[in-house]
Structures are given as structure tokens and as C-alpha cells.
Amino acid sequence: MRLGKTSTTLGALGVFLFLSMATAVAADPAAPSTGLENIFAPESTPAKSILDLSLLVLAVTAVIFVVVCTLLVYAVVKFRGSADDDREPAQVYGSTQIELAWTIIPILIVVVLFLATARVIHAVQDAPMPATAVEVTAIGHQFWWEFRYPRLGIVTANELHVPRSDPARPTPTFLKLLSADTDHSFWIPQLAGKTDLIPNRVNQMWMDPHRTGVFLGQCAQYCGTQHAKMLLSVSVDSPEDFDAWVRAQQQPAIQDETVTAGRRIFESTACINCHAINGTAADGRFGPDLTHLMSRRTIASGAAENTTERLRLWIENPDAIKPGSLMPAMQLSDADLDALVRYLETLR
Length: 348
Hints:
Blueprint: H1 7-14, E1 20-22, E2 36-38, H2 45-78, H3 96-125, E3 134-141, E4 144-149, E5 154-157, E6 159-163, E7 173-179, E8 184-187, E9 195-197, E10 203-207, E11 213-219, E12 231-237, H4 239-249, H5 260-268, H6 271-274, E13 298-299, E14 304-305, H7 308-316, H8 334-344
Parallel strand pairs: 3-7, 6-12
Antiparallel strand pairs: 1-2, 3-4, 4-5, 7-10, 8-9, 8-11, 11-12, 13-14
Helix pairs in contact: 1-2, 2-3, 5-8, 7-8
């Protein structure tokens, strides 16, 4: 078994008693997802495999629990003593049948669970990537997600777009998972199990969503101060909508002459050291690519809606939205801040 990747299957078993995960993200009200992701409602083959394995483990352990409790209650009731009874109960020595039972039965249970788990791990981790698959490189940062589509020439952040996978023409999404700083963990409960992102190591996972919608997840490994607000969303689009999204993301940044002052402010401040915008001098890699910033529903990795007011506040005082984030306060005048926000709002 390989470090970090076995959690793809077994990670869900460790939290099996939790019915849902609250993400507190400001999601689109029209989206099917509501902010509560139910791990018992899988919408992808890997998630369904993990659920089936979890139900098998739960059933086996439930049977063991019932048998043990039944025997315990039986022994307590049948062999209970009284204040006047000082006789020693009958002793059993060297019972071959009992020794065989408590040796063979546990071994069989362990073997069955081991084989079932190994089968699911193999099916999830070693699935071949078809030619029709969408390839994505996901990079965990403190505290946001970077998504790169190497075949499509797209770079975006926090909101992953993937196509729905039609059984007649499967279009799964295969993700290469990397970390830019510390340990992270990628988890979308309804689409796939947890998989760790570890510095200097490449892990992988895949999903083949069965229906369109927005599915929420977040980093499941404590990675620092704002770990709890390192949220992400996966937009599962129809093939037609995904193609339209790809075409839009492949377009260069909009050049609007009415916001030249805001662009000049962006290019003359520290913004360009962290962020990139195609067609400008900005080529930073520490923060999200802003070429199509306004195509995203949220900012600050899901911590706030992508509105004019929130965007302005995020630039002016990041700690007001995400205390402890690595986004610095830009210390701009009100006039410059307004001009910069107007420029960023044209990046669609």
C-alpha cells in the first residue's frame, strides 16, 4: 500500500458515523447542493465503492456486536449468583471446540474484510485512465486550491469544473494531487474518498460524476490557521456546458479601456508578485490566477461570495474575512481601491 493514497478508500471508514459534513460555503442558491454533503449519497463510482465497503464493514461489526451482547446478557442472567450461593460454577478446561471457534471465526472475519478492502483499493487506485478522461493537476496552498488543466491550457482556483460522465461514453476526471507547502487532504464526500496532498510527492485520484450539480468539499487535513476555511466546490457540468466553460476560460483576459487606471494600479503594486493575469505583467504563482476571476462564485477559497463589496473588503482587509490568511492588506487609498475593484470586475 502506498503512503497517502490508501486514505482514498479507508479515509471514509474512519468517519463513517458522521452523516454529513457542513462546509459553510456561500454556494449558489440555485445549485442542487445545499452546503451539507451526505457521504451516504454517492454520485461517483469511487464514492459508491467506498460506501459499499463501509456498509459491509458496518454489517459485519454489527453482527459481532449483537452476538457478543447476546452471549453477555445470557451469561449474566443464567449464571447470576445469590447471596447464599457460594458454590463455584462448573469449570471448562481444554475445550477443543471453543478454542477452534474463537480462533477460526475471527480469522475468517479478518480475511473477508481484508479481501473486500483490497479489492476496493485496487479498483479505485489502479483504474486505467481512458483517452477521453479530463486531466487536472490540483495543488494545495495555504489556504486555497489551484487547478490546472494541462491539456486545455486552463488555470483556475477553488472551483473545479468537470464534465458529467455518461456511462455510454465515460468521461472521468483524473486528478494529480500536489502540495505547495504543507500537508493537505482533498475530499469531496459525494464524489470520492479522501486523498492526501504531501510535499514532494505525487498522489492521484479520479471521479466520474453521474449527475450535474455543485458538490462541496474542503481540506480534510489540518494545514494551519485557516484550514477550516480552505473550502472547494466541484461544478459537474453537462458535456455542452463544460465545453462552453472551457472555451470561456481559454480566452485572454478582457482589455477594457474604461478601467485602465485600475489595471495600472494592479500592475504597479505587489499584486503582480502573487497573482497572474494573462496579457499583463502579472505572472505570480503564490496566489490564485485572476484572469477570469469574476467567473467564480466565491473568493478566499469559498469564505465569501464574489461580490463587489466582498471583493473590496478582501483587498482592503483580508483578516476581516479570513483571519490568518497569507493575503496581505494592500493599504490603498479609497480612490485607488475603487479603481482596482472596477478593473478586477471586468475579468470574466
